[in-house]
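Reopening this ticket.

The earlier resolution said the output was attached, but the attachment link was broken on my side. Pasting everything inline this time so it's all in one place.
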Amino acid sequence: MQLIQVILIGIVTTLLITLIKSYQPTFALVLVMITSLFLFYFIIVPLGEIIDLMRSLFSRFRIDSLYLETVFQIVGIAYLTELGSQLTKDAGLNSISSKIELVGKISIIFVSIPILTAIIETIIHLLP
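Inline output:
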């Protein structure tokens, strides 16, 4: 049911933006941003459930929480980067959008350093 609401909000907003864009392009852009943030809100509840499920799995198998937190940070960076990038593309600012994506990618690399370090240490310990 929630998926149908999201689709309907997207379709109605798209129609409104198409009608308004030629008369008030600034207002149309604001409407795009507000709608994007509102639709992003719909993923918060399912995302919370996924986080709880992953935490229970990690604790059940006694996996270090550092890895789980790192995965959550990477996913969060990816989603927020995508949202910011798409909003700037909607505004017609492709050059800024590409810079946002670059910062997101570098941030993901930086956050993933503990996992990369653990993988390298594991490989080194396995070698004779």
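Reporter confirms the inline version is readable. The two ends are 56 Å apart (CA to CA). The longest helix spans residues 65-90.
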